[in-house]
Specification:
- Helices cover 22% and strands 25% of the residues.
- The protein is an alpha+beta fold.
- The protein has a three-stranded antiparallel beta sheet with strand order 1-2-3, with no helix packed on it.
- The chain is globular.
- The protein starts with 6 loop residues before the first strand and ends in a 20-residue tail after the last helix.
């Protein structure tokens, strides 16, 4: 069972630039300037657990309607 509340914060040079949580997500206006760093963070997170496994579908993030992933 997945915990009800969780969060991940990406910090660059002491400044929080992105926060992902079970309640939502937020990032600074200039978040696109940090795209390579955010992608690298995502790669590191996935490295801990490996690729999705059968049964993980319920926990994978879904893109919002009208937005490309």
């Amino acid at each position: 069972m997945m915990p009800e509340n969780w969060s991940v914060t990406v910090t660059v040079d002491g400044e929080d630039i992105l926060r992902l949580s079970s309640g939502g997500l937020c990032g600074g206006e200039d978040i696109s300037n940090f795209a390579p760093i955010v992608r690298e963070c995502a790669d590191h997170l996935l490295a801990f657990i490996g690729p999705p496994q059968p049964g993980d579908e319920d926990y994978l993030a879904q893109p919002e309607a009208g937005k490309e992933s």
